[in-house]
Amino acid sequence: MSQVTSTIWRALAYGGRGEPLPKGLDAVWDWLVGMTGRIVPRRRWLLKQALLIDARSKTYSDMSDAHLRERAAELRAMFRCGRQKHNDVIEAFAVVREICVRTTGMKPFLVQLAGGLAIYLGYITEMATGEGKTLTATLPASIRGWVGKGCHVLTVNDYLAQRDAETMKPIYEFSGLHVSYITGQMHPPERRAAYAADITYCTNKEVCADYLRDQLSMGRLRGSGSASSILSNIVEGGAGTDRLVMRGLEFAIVDEADSILIDEAVTPLIISGDVPNTEQVEAFQQAVDIAARLIPDEHFSVNHKYREVDFTDAGKDFIEEAAEPLGGIWAGARRREELVNQALVARELYTLNKQYVIQEGKIVIVDEFTGRLMPDRTWRDGLHQAVEAKETLTVNPPKETFARISFQRFFRMYRQLSGMTGTATESVAEMWQIYHRPVVVIPTNRPCVRKTYRDRIYATEEAKFAAVADKIQELHKTGQPVLVGTRSVRASEHLSDLLGEKGLMHEVLNAVRHKEEAQIVSRAGQPGAITVATNMAGRGTDIKLGKGVQDLGGLFVLATERHEAGRVDRQLFGRCARQGDPGHAQAFVSLEDELVLRHAAMGSTQTKRMVGNTTRDISNSLTRSLFAFAQKKAEIMALRQRKSVLKTDNWLDEFLGFAGKET
What we know:
With 663 residues, the chain is α/β, with parallel strands linked by helices. The protein is built from 26 helices and 21 strands.
């Protein structure tokens, strides 16, 4: 008889069904609970506990390595049996802190101890950029690893997952733990071994995809009838159980929690397969031809705010007439309008070097929040094919969906979810409403001395970038390093051209030039360095100041656009003035920026009409309030969209059920 592992039983416990969002009076009560929780003095209590950990850790400073390992083993046995009390948690943190000192030479500060304890307790912890979140995570991860059910530490890309696992490996091994990591190139046996480790570093995309694949493998097992038949299938290794790689969803520590839990929440992860369809591929190309003959305003209108295209009656009539000789799938009114609509959306709302790039003859999506490439992703509902047809590339047939889940719903299924980020304050309400996770803000180890200047606002994009180039030249003459944040590949390339015309040597980091990302960003603090990067590029990499840079005022971070979410702007500005270093930050924006064109179009148009095409700075209380209004409106709309995605997930689960097909 085969051995029945606990891995299979725990995996079966996760049926893919999360608790629905509360409604009516339940939602009001839930909101009141969240509001009440915000006034609880968690930070003060955590800092007091950090002092207790600090006092306790002195007990272990003179202990030999052998005795320290023995004490770690004793604590591990206690946590594995679930017999620990709060005092034991304090002692465990003290032990792991001493292990950190001996294995890496880094001693967690009091604020890192407080942050680690907050993560252990299941909070979303805000720690300023540069405060050492990677080291902080090892404290709760080690203790959760002692439980023996697996702890996932999730980050935004494969590089960071591998780097952090390898860098922190000595801490875990000294603690008697096995650590591993998962990257996109790994095969199922390697993944299974990685998930079997006590602590697994991975990305949100990889762990979510592995979960879906496991669910597909177990689809028939759940539908096999009685308990006895299920047990028989497990013992015999049938129904796909030999393909499982995960062992349940117990503990998750999410690095860059705002990016993973909020920014990427609206994008569902889909497992799909190829379904060749020659007629459908031809239809996408025909749709582009028909769309090219449609006249704006007469046949269709574009809603930039909601990124939609609407047909007029005249447009529907034109499409019907143009599609009449084509036959086939063009015979149905709804289908032909969907095809042409996607062709128009691709043409009007999706721009090369902004939402996507072309590499080796293929469309590669660019993450608009991070500026990174997403080569394994495709747009749904024929949009990807419409973009391929627009760019006259080979149109690949749409894929058939086998399983789907949103990141929101996936992370809500962990037994305990916690996270850390540099910007969580703006998302306190959402973290509670969606994930039921309170947010706690940990103070910086040293006071932040960043100087943030008022935004400089210009009438046109051309005037804005000219002013940005002049400002960079002015700073470069003093030797002060500059990190410039842009919203798109196109903007970074345009600014690069302007700097080239001025003879300024610089480095560009975007979705196209993404190799050696961490190395480029780490050099951004050297004297005279000019680094142009998409807003979130290099996130997770420290920028250390070169010799003499402190005397020059530290790193100057310059944003060339405001983001839809204010916390993303704050994250960019947080790249300077770390650990008490000096730093400066400022944003240069224009009335032609996407933020105001989408969310405050009327105000932007009227203001531009008043000021004309002047090249001077038009910043005043009125124009500043215009951008603040647009940003707030964008944040509200994004929150509604994320809630809508979660409700859709629950509806699909309730009425359609899981696909249940085997891979």
